[in-house]
Amino acid sequence: MLAYPTSFAEVQRVVRPSDILACWTYHLQTVSPEVDALVQKLYADILGPFWWPESKHIEDGYRSLPFPFKEVTLPPFRFVQKWDMNRLAAYMGTWSGSQRFRKETGRDPIGEIRDDLAAAWGDPDQEREVAWTLFLRLGMITGTKP
Fold this sequence. Notes:
Rossmann fold
């Protein structure tokens, strides 16, 4: 997670004018309306209290962070993979909210939706397209160094 404003001050210190800073993140993946609804249930309803407050910056694509650079606008980017259900479940188990849930409750958060996920997915070995929108903030460094 970006530690602003300290990080931004360091960027201003070490780069040259006209250099570009790229900050990027991604949030929830999409698969299908049925699977996406279960992912949203896991993310918000089950893991909601286990996310760090700074997660809001990821949710909004870093738009809530101050960004003291001349912003460069880009079209949206998508990252797409072919995964089976177990790979998706394993990935969601790596989320920081999932890890905190597991540590604090002793339960597997994915287990809370696994049966419904299997029903929505169908054949668990069937690979499906899993896609994320990448959120980018590009900024041109302007001015002189402090």
